[in-house]
Write a structure and sequence with these properties.
single chain, about 625 residues, mainly beta, 22-stranded antiparallel barrel, 4-stranded mixed sheet
């Protein structure tokens, strides 16, 4: 079947009725992204400082200049923006933090490391693509999914719609999703208005861990039959004014209903949060050398959570409602930044961020212990956080930039970490997590080559998690490494992209574990944080021998990494090759890709839990094809 499809594809491309036309760089880039970003994991593989470990696309854990984090740390350590507004409210994140975002076709910028006073490990920024023509697209792997996508522009209005139906390459991993977006501009002489409206709806079955990632007869199997998740939400934002002198009004809603399949009694959780907010930005140029920018955010968010168990009581997992509470969050965040140009290649940037946050928690059930669950009494918690930062920049010419950056950021622990406690845990208020960093950066760009290099060192305090004994832990971690990105256009036919990241992420405290079965989770100072990947690399070489043709070969490398806090068990790492070919014929773009060319057996996530290895197996060799009609 695969041979027949490939042969038909090649014959179609060379049929004389399809007169070749010159394909533009923009069209090639857009098509490359659609084809290679067929999954959420693909989207980040060309950025070596980030990684994504996934069972299915929606069930994932993300990292950015960090270990692969879980729980509240995974939800709160990164901020993800859609245009000018964070996709989810601060403190109300999702462990699968990129869930619902329009990664398939929106432009993506990544900003690693702490910044802006409230971002801990980094942020991602999704922006509407520059659409000048209408495009209809169909993408499929001939085996487990198809995706229909439409993008278009009419005058100053852009539209985007995506529908995907997937029955999954693993057992019990089906998913369906709809994503719809609309943006536009309304020009006025003194009061320009722009808007961005986005909605998503996903319905997913989750495939669980596999006991092996090498045995082809096992990697597709999953014993989870009731791990469903349904989620939907929207983000609407309206911008009045011009760049750095504007107001942004926004509202967001996120709702999710899912089965907590990792517990023996599979309780059900329903959560949602709704926000209303305004952002204000104003710049002031005092003279040719001094510039000040002030940003103010005011946000009101109301969140709700309900967890209940239908199954009979088992051990301390009691049948009935475990939690039911509301949290109202009021946030005022002010960022002040001043830039000074010293009439030379040297300039400085000084900034400070203040966060004032009030959290009002309302428990709807009887307070106290309920089996293993602890329901806190009603309370209000107020935080006032101050985070300074500074940069020294050296620009000897338009091509080079050197910078030394000192950053500090703080975040309040996630709402569910603050109020969703377990029996035996300390009920005291959890302090804000804070991180300090220093980085040395060098970038260069000309007509043929551009690169960015960063050396960084970070110390994080009040890193909160629950250990193998189920106890609260607040610890310190240390992170340092090197990141490098290179784009090189050799000539009119050849170009290359290279991204590498080396990192050392360690615990800076001791934490013994009492449970004999979990001694491999005992923490000793200077141990490497489990799932911290020491080395990652992505290399892609592109060849365009003829007008309308483009061949791409991509190499992805993930080094070995530890699977437990005691550093007793390891995953050996892997190397993957992908190939793709694109051709333009009249108004059509036709593409074909081979993913995992050499059919390598690998794991997208490896773990060691209670005496056993477990894996999210990587997909064996498979094929993708896409067809796009541009008009």
């Amino acid at each position: 079947m695969m041979t027949l499809l490939l042969t038909t594809f090649i014959l179609l491309l060379n049929h004389p009725t399809f007169a070749q036309d010159v394909i533009t760089i923009e069209e090639l880039r857009h098509n490359k992204e659609i084809l290679q970003n067929s999954s959420l994991q693909d989207r980040f593989q060309s950025h070596a400082n980030s990684s994504l470990q996934a069972s299915t696309e929606l069930e994932h854990l993300f990292s950015l200049r960090s270990p692969v984090l879980t729980g509240g740390a995974a939800a709160g350590s990164f901020l993800h923006f859609l245009e000018d507004v964070s996709f989810r409210a601060r403190g109300f994140g999702n462990t699968n933090s990129l869930l619902g975002l329009p990664y398939e076709s929106f432009n993506l910028n990544i900003r690693p490391g702490p910044h802006s006073g409230d971002v801990i490990h980094g942020s991602t920024h999704f922006h509407w693509p520059q659409v000048n023509k209408r495009r209809l697209s169909l993408l499929s792997d001939f085996e487990s999914f198809y995706r229909l996508q439409a993008n278009g522009r009419a005058k100053k209005v852009k539209g985007h719609i995506l529908v995907e139906d997937s029955w999954g390459w693993r057992d019990h991993s089906a998913q369906n999703k709809i994503k719809i977006g609309l943006s536009g501009e309304i020009e006025a002489a003194h009061f320009p208005l722009s808007y961005s409206l986005y909605y998503y709806n996903v319905d997913q079955d989750t495939a669980g861990y596999s006991e092996d990632y090498k045995d082809k007869s096992l990697i597709k199997s999953s014993n989870l039959t009731n791990a469903q998740r349904k989620a939907n939400g929207y983000l609407a934002q309206f911008k009045m004014g011009r760049e750095n002198n504007h107001f942004i009004f926004y509202t967001r809603l996120h709702e999710m209903d899912f089965n907590m399949h990792w517990f023996p009694t599979s309780p059900q959780e329903i959560n949602k949060h709704r926000s209303y907010g305004i952002k204000f930005s104003k710049d002031s140029k005092w003279n040719s050398s001094n510039y000040t920018l002030i940003n103010i955010l005011s946000d009101f968010t109301k969140g709700e959570l309900n967890e209940f168990q239908e199954q009979p009581t088992r051990f301390s997992f009691i049948q009935g409602e475990h939690y039911s509470y509301e949290v109202e969050s009021r946030r005022v965040q002010t960022n002040l930044k001043h830039l000074t140009n010293w009439n030379s290649p040297l300039s400085t940037e000084l900034g400070i961020t203040h966060q004032w946050v009030s959290l009002e928690y309302n428990n709807k059930l009887e307070e106290g212990s309920f089996g293993r669950y602890l329901r806190l009494s009603d309370q209000e918690n107020i935080y006032s956080l101050l985070s300074p930062y500074a940069s020294l920049l050296y620009n000897p010419n338009l091509s080079h930039e050197l910078s030394l950056r000192l950053n500090s950021s703080q975040r309040i622990q996630e709402v569910n970490d603050l109020y969703r406690r377990l029996e035996g845990q300390v009920e005291e208020e959890l302090p804000a997590e804070r991180i300090s960093s220093i980085s040395l950066n060098w970038s260069y760009q000309n007509d043929q080559i551009s690169f960015k290099n960063s050396l960084y060192y970070m110390v994080k305090k009040n890193f909160y998690f629950r250990d193998a004994d189920g106890e609260n832990v607040l610890g310190e971690t240390r992170h340092y490494g090197l990141e490098s990105d290179l784009l090189w256009q050799f000539n009119a036919y050849w170009d290359m992209q290279l991204s590498i990241a080396l990192g050392d992420h360690t615990y800076q405290f001791d934490n013994p574990v009492n449970a004999s079965a979990n001694q491999n989770e005992a923490i000793t100072k200077d141990n490497t944080i489990d799932t911290a990947i020491p080395f990652q690399a992505s290399t892609q070489i592109n060849w365009s021998p003829l007008s309308g043709d483009r061949f791409s070969l991509r190499y992805l490398k993930t080094s070995s990494y530890y699977l437990d806090a005691a550093n007793e068990h390891k995953y050996s790492g892997h190397s993957i090759f992908d190939f793709s070919y694109t051709k333009k014929v009249k108004n059509w773009l036709l593409s074909f890709a081979i993913k995992n060319v050499f059919d390598t057996r690998y794991a997208t996530r490896a773990d060691y839990f209670r005496g056993s290895y477990r894996y999210f197996p990587g997909r064996p060799r498979h094929y993708l094809s896409s067809i796009h009609y541009i008009f």
